[in-house]
User: Which sequence fits this backbone?
């Protein structure tokens, strides 16, 4: 009798999952996988589908209540706030990318900016420390990972000094990414008047809706005058020589000028989302500062609160609009079908496509999954170089004209589930500076040859294929 009841319950749950997969699934191959999982693994399969498979953009019943809250806040608070920034882009290529991002996010190109490309963790933290020391009004920090160590201790010391000067300090951290951050550290910060809040905390009643949706952004804003974003988290991985991966390498960007307000807008939205505190009404958090330089920058935010997968569309537009070259640095290159086809088409069309990727990473499953795409890409003419050091940089640039630096990986998690943020730079001088660093790193890397790679062992191929099954979750 018990087995009969469980069987009927499984059929009911499977039928509900099947209906949602059938009517709201986006990719046939992915939909078929979820049908098999929910059918062959009673209860566990349906639970996994609810966590990782539901298309929350299309099924309003399963939309995160926090996402609804964010959408309503954006619509009521920021619907026309950036119309005052007019862009002055020169090429059709630039205008197409800028229009795509604007139509998705309502964030236009800002024209008055001074940029500094930060090529590693030491450069990044040195500049962040200096900016914090010079803060007069407020400091806003938002990171996926905040981990205890030398870097965090230095930042806390600086922030305490700023609090003595009545500088407002607010910190957002991802509840999963910063899971190791101790209660003692958080209480120490709060005791000095620093506002510290988790994003997407795992609580009873919302666990099933929030576990798979993380805030992956890395932002530092000082007085709306200086902003930082990119791939660097607050962790000693960037200064400590790890036995396996060594010192992590990463790219970040320092912005002075109008684009800092776009970073601030993103922070204000996330702060409201995490706390119900609305900073948008206070004038000092909404002041825009111009720069004497004229580098054009557009901030790209993406997440479940947008109707489209904005960062995936951004990457696709880069690939499709490139005329001469595409260069990519990324630690987790696990492309979706559309991204994979776009790279193949570009290479077969005569565009020089170069991928600079790490030979080893912090996740063996992700590394094997990444390797599973190499043979297809190499056969199409894509050049792949493997670095001995671990590069955490998320960089793409095309035709030595347009570049993007941010938090977004080439994987389903970044495209569909995470809250991400990139900075698009419409400037050939800055892009050529990034190209110089790219070429320097490439010269030290190992180029993969197609004939040699296709003859790798069956064990290697099997591991790659097995790990590739998990690519939608990585």
Assistant:
């Amino acid at each position: 009798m018990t087995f009969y009841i469980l069987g009927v319950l499984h059929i009911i749950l499977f039928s509900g999952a099947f209906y949602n997969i059938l009517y709201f699934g986006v990719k046939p191959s992915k939909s078929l996988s979820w049908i098999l999982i929910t059918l062959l693994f009673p209860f566990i399969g349906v639970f996994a589908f609810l966590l990782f498979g539901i298309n929350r953009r299309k099924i309003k019943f399963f939309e995160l209540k926090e996402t609804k809250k964010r959408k309503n806040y954006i619509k009521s608070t920021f619907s026309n706030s950036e119309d005052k920034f007019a862009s002055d882009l020169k090429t059709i290529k630039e205008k197409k990318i800028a229009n795509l991002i604007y139509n998705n996010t309502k964030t236009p190109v800002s024209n008055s900016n001074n940029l500094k490309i930060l090529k590693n963790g030491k450069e990044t933290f040195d500049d962040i420390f200096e900016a914090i020391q010079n803060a007069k009004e407020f400091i806003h920090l938002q990171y996926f990972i905040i981990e205890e160590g030398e870097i965090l201790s230095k930042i806390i010391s600086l922030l305490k000094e700023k609090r003595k000067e009545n500088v407002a300090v607010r910190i957002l951290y991802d509840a999963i990414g910063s899971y190791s951050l101790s209660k003692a550290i958080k209480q120490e910060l709060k005791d000095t008047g620093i506002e510290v809040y988790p994003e997407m905390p795992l609580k009873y009643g919302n666990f099933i809706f929030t576990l798979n949706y993380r805030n992956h952004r890395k932002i530092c804003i000082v007085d709306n005058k200086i902003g930082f974003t990119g791939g660097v988290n607050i962790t000693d991985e960037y200064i400590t020589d790890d036995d396996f991966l060594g010192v992590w390498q990463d790219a970040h960007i320092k912005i002075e000028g109008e684009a800092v307000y776009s970073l601030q807008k993103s922070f204000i939205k996330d702060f409201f989302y995490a706390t119900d505190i609305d900073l948008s009404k206070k004038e000092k958090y909404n002041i825009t500062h111009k720069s004497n330089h004229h580098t054009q920058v557009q901030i790209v935010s993406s997440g479940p609160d947008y109707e489209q997968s904005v960062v995936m569309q951004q990457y696709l537009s880069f690939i499709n609009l490139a005329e001469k070259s595409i260069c990519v640095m990324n630690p987790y290159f696990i492309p979706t079908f559309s991204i994979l086809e776009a790279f193949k088409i570009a290479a077969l069309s005569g565009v020089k496509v170069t991928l600079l990727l790490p030979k080893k990473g912090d996740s063996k499953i992700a590394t094997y999954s990444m390797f599973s795409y190499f043979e297809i890409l190499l056969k199409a003419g894509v050049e792949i170089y493997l670095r001995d050091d671990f590069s955490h940089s998320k960089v793409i640039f095309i035709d030595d004209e347009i570049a993007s630096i941010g938090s977004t990986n080439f994987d389903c998690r970044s495209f569909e589930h995470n809250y991400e943020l990139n900075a698009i730079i419409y400037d050939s001088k800055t892009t050529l500076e990034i190209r110089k660093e790219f070429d320097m790193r490439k010269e030290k890397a190992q180029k993969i040859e197609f004939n040699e790679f296709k003859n790798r062992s069956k064990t290697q191929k099997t591991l790659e294929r097995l790990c590739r099954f998990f690519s939608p979750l990585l």
